[in-house]
Amino acid sequence: MRLIEIKQTVETSATFKEWKEFHPKAFLYLIFSMFEKVSLAVFEAAYYCPKEKKATIFVIDEVVLLKGEDEIFGDNVPAKLEFKNVKINMADALITASKTQIEKYPNEIPSKTIVMLQVIDKKTSWNLTLFTLSFSTLNIKIDAASGKVFDHSLSKLFDFVK
Question: Which domain holds residue 48?
Answer without folding.
Answer: 3-71
